Amino acid sequence: MTELFEGYAWEAAWDEMFGAPGKPRLPNRGLYATLRTLTPADLDERCAERDRSFRDRGITFSLSGEERPFPLDPIPRVLSAAEWSQIEDGVRQRVRALEALLADLYGAGQVLADGILPRQVVTSAEHFRRAAWGLEPPNGVRIHVAGIDLVRDRHGRFCVLEDNVRIPSGVSYVLENRRTITRIFPELLASHHIRPVSDYPAKLLAALRAARPLNAGSEPNVVVLTPGVHNSAYFEHSFLARQMGVELVEGRDLFCRNNQLFMRTTGGRERVDVVYRRVDDDFLDPVQFNSSSLLGCPGIVNAARSGNVTLANAIGNGVADDKLVYTYLPELIDYYLGERPVLPNVPTYRLEDREQLEAAMVRIDELVMKPVAGSGGTGLVIGPQASDDELATAERSVRDDPRGWIAQEMVTLSTAPTRVGGKLEARHIDLRPFAINDGRTIWVLPGGLTRVALRRGSLVVNSSQGGGSKDTWVLAADARRDAAGDKPPSGAGNGCDRSRLGAALRLAPVGGPEPGPHLDGQQQQQQQQQQQQAPC
Amino acid sequence: MSWRIATSHVSRYRYASPVVASYNEARMTPSPGPEQLVLDSELRVEPSAVLFRYVDYWGTLVHAFDVHEPHDELVVTGTSVVETTPTAPSLAGEPGAPADPAAKPGTGPVAGSDDPGSWQQLRSTALRDRFSELLAPTSYAPFDAELAGAAGDLAAGADPAEAAERVVAFVHDHLRYEAGTTGVSTSGLEAWRLGTGVCQDFAHLALSMLRQLGIPARYTSGYLHPSAEASIGDRVPGASHAWIEAWVGRFVALDPTIGSAAGVRHVTVARGRDYADVTPLRGVYHGGEHVQLTVEVQLTRLA
User: Fold this and answer.
1) Same structural domain for residues A25 and A54?
2) Residue A467's pLDDT is what?
3) For A46-70, what is each residue's pLDDT tens digit?
4) To bridge B253 with a disulfide, which of A195, A306, A375, B262 should be the other Cys (CB 3.0-4.6 Å)?
5) Rounded Cα–Cα distance for residues B253 and B246 (Å)
6) CB pairs below 8 Å between A and B: how many?
7) pLDDT of A527 above 60
8) What is the span of the domain harbouring residue A304?
9) Residues of A with Cβ-Cβ distance to B128 under 8 angstroms
10) From the candidates A256, A302, A355, A403, which should be mutated to test the interface with B, based on the most B CB atoms within 10 A?
11) What is the CA radius of gyration of chain B?
């Protein structure tokens, strides 16, 4: 191996670049060929250019009050056309099923009447909104934007770790990462046929326009609603508004009158037809939800109910990405679509079921215990890494509130070469593809956000050390070099592996809320673990 | 025998200084159902506002409106003429049921239960799931070991229908009706410890006990004509009232405040898990401090 890859250590994980030491997988050959010509000093130089690029464009990441360049690892992640095709099919299928589920739960409730999904699972979900019942979106779309979190097991199979259909974030980094990698590795971009990601804002705008109320004209007024500059994702809100060429507004810029929504402008009031809102349900409308919220707009839910404005994403979507509802997705895909899941779930125990609870508690030291809701100060517990005391505490918490927890098999996350201390080492990664539903087609952004755990062996990014991300390449199907090998392993029906070597953990969100000061080690751990719930 | 009752419910909000933007939802007009026929119903708002009507998750008719004209008084008036019958209440208020029960799938008899209303049926997984929202504790109707014990003693030897009646009679006997001792946010358990309360507290206490017995039960709000011997045409002062409906193979309406079944003197406005789901008027406004609320209910037996 070359200097950069010297001592590249294997874990018993699927490595994205290498099938065997020194043997890059087919889609990675071009990337590897270029990287092996680089010295660590060359790579340092490219990284300095990367940092300049982010600084020049004002893209920083706020960490403990300090603005730093956004943590982009310089080594891209490469997916073949065939691998991507499976992900794309799987994500589309997932979104179709989740849309059908939401339409049903906020309407006839057939899936409940048919006994496929217990009513109690739905009504006890933290984000089930009774105020959304009977509220029908104009073009039937509730999930305008989805982020489906995938991990790859040690056999190379992708599986779904979590659905995000409330306010999935991170797409702005996908676009900025590509710009930056293009700037620092022009030769790589020239030698690869990579599917572009720059269509995203246009696709999003088209989907928002397609969701306009029936009484809106053909030129609907679309706005992006942000909680404001103090929100950790504010950069993304302003980025998307700018890219789409629409207004970025806060709650105080909006008002409702007779169930119509208006925006205050210097030229007087202006009707608003579609709101791409990045404000959580709870804060969106003080008439319906948190009555002390100033971040939203009173009356906006009934404006949506009366068909005068479209909220994207719809309110109440969080019931569909509830961690317990997640466990029913394979059945729901069959129920609504009559299909088998393209992408399997990570095997998960439903702890309200007595038998499953006991089966999970017997091997709690092998499993990952995850709180269903991101609230309450409780974090996830990684069985093999927890002390006996921690396990005992976790078991008590679970037994006290079985609805509040799921138990998941450990999945060995795949690894990819990542720059650490000037050289490349294997680090664990995940993938969040983004999908946009315009009511006619579900478009999946080719690539998505790859997140990296920067510490060796770690499956959780410690955001105080800077969470990482990677530019994610999807090679075009016409790239001949991609045609022959590296077919994605079939994932359907097999489930993800049950290896004990790693944990099926969500990597910490890029741009997530920063931990507060003065946390001791234990609290800090919880803080970070809560952050894992944060991007949605 | 059915009654025909005219209702008038006026809520008057006064503010210390003018309010400029007020967004509200009113649940102040009766909902149609097999137990009552709504012949006429209207909601009026002063200053005037455009009303938007919808039926909520619990089957309650809601009027939403916003007022932008500066005002130091907001008057919301709900009026109706309702024909009440002694029929058992409908499933219309079942969670997620639309106003038209015929449009709701899955509301028929529970499959596999040949003994409707038995403890066995109430304990079945299917039924507990179907009514999970009406079996869970709420902040107004929390669970409590002492209450569970009292409810358990009452239920001994009784079938669910009889147990529900006993619970309601127990609440009637053990709470003294006394206005001003509890507030709008008092829980049924707090009222139990005080030993006094108003209809809302009686209802919440009964809900706590019924749900701990495994009997699905919901909060019902509306009006109660005070006199069983009412003369036709006499207009009498009334008040907002609350009672409960328990599911014992079917819903039965029971009024713990008067200690008996609800009947022709009861006009149903809203249903839910507890008071929070049926609040007559809720909303937000910008402007002056709220200084006074007066509520006036008048009931007239027409036939």
Assistant:
1) yes
2) 65
3) 999 998 988 888 776 666 666 676 7
4) B262
5) 7
6) 77
7) no
8) 214-308
9) 120
10) A302
11) 19
